[in-house]
Design a protein that fits this description.
Elements lengths: L11 H33 L6 H11 L11 H4 L2 H9 L2 E5 L9 E6 L6 H7 L9 E6 L4 E2 L2 H8 L6 E6 L2 H5 L16 H9 L2 E8 L6 E2 L7 H13 L6 E2 L17 E9 L1 H7 L6
Parallel strand pairs: 1-9, 2-5, 2-6, 3-4, 3-5
Antiparallel strand pairs: 6-9, 7-8
Helix pairs in contact: 1-4
Main location: endoplasmic reticulum
Keywords: Acyltransferase, Endoplasmic reticulum, Glycerol metabolism, Glycoprotein, Lipid biosynthesis, Lipid metabolism, Membrane, Transferase, Transmembrane, Transmembrane helix
EC number: 2.3.1.22
Length: 283
Amino acid sequence: MKVEFAPLNIPRTRRLQTAAVLQWVLSFLLQAQVFIGIILMLIIHNYWFLYIPYLTWLYFDWRTPEQGGRRSNWVRNWTVWKYFKDYFPIHLIKTQDLDPNHNYIFGFHPHGVLVAGVFGNFCTNYSNFKELVHFHAADTQVSVSKKSVSYVLSKDGGGNISVIVLGGAEESLDAHPGKFTLFTRQRKGFVKMALTQGAYLVSVFSFGENELFKQISNPEGSWLRTVQEKLQKIMGFALPLFHTRGVFQYNSGLMPYRKAIHTVAHETLNQKTQLNYSKCVFY
């Protein structure tokens, strides 16, 4: 197979976009391994005393993920995220303005491989969406537990938003270009949460999310899918095997393709329509 190299005369802006996405991908894939490696090195070289301040901080900080996390506008305003957003590019489309006096749950689909649409639109300050946003994930950003979501949505004053990637790890294993497989049948807890907390529901769909990576074929019942599902149950997160383009060539690598992402947010359930659901029971 002939290798297609990137041209040498690529504009500086595009190079910065590539660098921004590369560091995001590496952080996403290798962050945990790097920290584990540091811990092992400290153990091997008998620097155990360095754990004392860390464990002390961990003890007092243990409940932070269930209390809205630690939002940092300084980090959200880093210029690197502008280049990240422009790489694809990522667009956020609101079908209507949201009342800042209310709290909301954003139900996001599809998960994709690395949920780039969620990150670009709701974890940085470079989308056209400026309301207060809490991204709930499986114990990686802000805990997606019932306690955590309730904490955010019970705040007075409105303008608090919980973004939940509903399909989760299970949905990521079906993230293939040209298709959308959504896991919704057993994902009704967020609806009950909205009714309980009086929050408004907003459907969010990210067109183009599944086009960023080519995942190795893993149909239901295949040996690869069986292994992935077993590992998911053990570790709590999925391991989709994907291949895309590289940094200096376009044949293989870990860089997502430059495919536009159009994320559409549409309010589907508000206080008025909730009255019709007040006696419903969700299973």
